[in-house]
Predict the structure.
Amino acid sequence: MSDTHSFPQIHPAPLAGHSALLHRLCFYPVLFTQGPYVKMRTPRLPEPEGARSGVVGNGKPLRVVIVGDSSAAGVGVAHQKHALSGQLTRRLATRTRLDWDLVAKCGNTTPMALRQLKSANPARADVAITGLGVNDITSGTPLGTWLRQTDDLIDHLKDHLGVRHVYMAGIPPLSQFPRLQGPLRWVLGHQAERFDRALRDHLGARGDATWITLDVSLDHSNMAEDGYHPREDVYAEWARTLSDRMAIDLGV
């Protein structure tokens, strides 16, 4: 399965008991049989051009680091100004002096993102924003393992970069991705709901990171040509949601 988008979604409904059992029995056989075929037939989009760090705006100083996979990297648009980083920095620059870094790469799972972050060693930050999880699902990572890896990432952001606020994007509704069809759409959609629900509850129990969700339905009108990644308007809504939440939490 190629790298996919990992941005916020609507609240999922819980799986019924029999449905959950059926899903567990079907997930891995479907993933590892239909997945390679879908990957082979899917166009691979490049990461967008444009700056991945900078200082913009005037006002209260704020340091932000964006970490993640292809969603954080902005795949689906041609330039970073149309991706999450560009749209969020423009919003924040109207009320802060923003110093920002983007540390993201197509294909990143959560532990891969942590390794990239350690290698990049960006400056200390006040806020971290993450977009991860889909590649963990499509690589077959068990849920419990993924939550522990998420803890490792949060702990590194706080302990080594001094981050005070972590905003983690929920798992997108994979059942709505235009590229996915048949059994693969069903098993990945249900796994995405399961991971997203667990992430929301896990972060709530930790109390030091925030699950960010977005009420957006996905279809051909707002998804890129590969059927996996969002177009500009979805990135814009993600940026707006983050900016509004940060204004409440941080007073910026």
Helices lie at 17-40, 70-73, 84-93, 110-120, 134-138, 143-161, 182-206, 232-250. The longest strand covers residues 60-68. The chain has one domain: 17-45+54-250. The CA atoms of residues 19 and 190 lie 9 Å apart.
